[in-house]
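Hey, sorry to bother you again with one of my protein questions. I've been puzzling over a protein and I'd love to understand its fold better. Take your time with it, there's no hurry, and the full record follows here:
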Amino acid sequence: MAGFTKPRHIHYLRAPFSNGPGKVPMKPIQMVDLIGQYQKIKPEVDAAMQQVLSTAAFINGPEVKELEKELSAYLGVKHTVACANGTDALQIAMMALGLKPGDEVITASFTFVATVEVVALLGITPVFADVLPGTFNLDPADIERKITPKTKAIVPVHLFGQVADMDAIMAIAEKHGLFVIEDNAQAIGAVYTSKDGTRRKAGSIGHVASTSFFPSKNLGCYGDGGAIFTNDDVLAGKLRKICNHGSDVRYYHEVVGVNSRLDSLQAAILRIKLKHLDQYAKERNRAATHYDNAFASLEHIAVPERSSNSTHVFHQYTLKVTGGHRDGLKKHLEDKGIPAMIYYPVPCHLQTAYKASRCPEGSLPNTEQLTHEVLSLPMSTEMDNEQLSYITEAISSFINA
C-alpha cells in the first residue's frame, strides 16, 4: 500500500507566522490540514456520526453497506468490499486470488513498505521492478524483464496521485497470464485514459484493487480504514468471506480468513467526504499549479511530471531537487516553519527486512536516484495563496542564494 503516512506526516506549528505589525497572522502551515478540512464539513460529519451512535450499529451497519454502494458507483466497479485498513486490503486481495508461498509478485521498491510487507507475510516472493524517473510509477519494460515462470501477479502502485501505465501493464499481464492488483492508496479519484479513449478511474482497471482511508489520504476517515474493488463476481464473494473469518454463515468457516471490517462510524465519515472528493482534487490541483508556476525556471528544481494518460490528484506534491541540494533545502524550510517530507528515504529492496540477492544495491538505478532527490511539500485542500507564496518564496530564496 503505497505511501501509508503515519501521524508524523501532520505537523502543527506552535504559533502563527507574523506578517508584521497590525497584520493578521498567517495560518500555520501543515503537510495536511485535517482540522481545517473538518471545520468546513463539521455539521455534515457530526450529524452522520450521531446517527450511527443513535442506532448503535457499529460493525457492518447500514453506513458500511451504503458506502460500498457509493464507492462502486463513483469508481465504476461492480463490487466494493470495505475492510479495516489498506494493508489488509492488499493482503486479502492476494489471498482471494489464491497466491501461495513460492509464487512471485512484481511490484515497486519505491513505495511505502506495506505494499511489500503483505507479500512477504503470505510467504510470496516480492520481485522489484524499477520506476520511471518522471512519474515515479512502475516501468513496464522492467516489469517484463522480471517475469519468471513463478510470477503470478503485478502490483502497480499509483504513486503520489496519478495512475501507472495501465495499458502497458494490462497487456503484459494478459500476455503472461498474470493478475494485476492495483495499489490505489494514493490516487483515488484519478482518471486514466486508455489508448482507445476509454476513461476509467484508478482502482477500476486491474483484476482487483485496494485503497487506504488513513486520515491523511485524499479520501481519509478519522481512524483506520480500507477497501477492495473488483468487477469479478466470484472474486468479490471470496473477498467478503476472507474479511469475515472465512465465513459466509456465522460459525461456519469454509476458508482461512481474517477479521478485517470497517466500522460504521468511519463509513459514515467517508460517505460525507466522498461527496467532496472531486472538489478536494480541484483544490489540490490549484495548489500544485501555484507551485508549478513558481518553480518553472528554478535551477535544481524539477516539478512533478504529469502523465499524458492520467489526471493527477496530488496526494503528494513531490519535487526532484538535484545537485545535492535536497537535504539543505529541507532544513531551510523547516527553519522557516514549513514541513517537508522525504517519501521514501530508503527503497524497499535496500531495507534490512527485504534485502535479496536478486536485487542488490545498484540494480534499480531510477529508484535509488529518487531516494536522494525527492522532497514533498505541504499539500492540502485548505491551503491558501498566502501560505503557498510563503513556501515558494522560501524555496526560491534558498535556490537563488
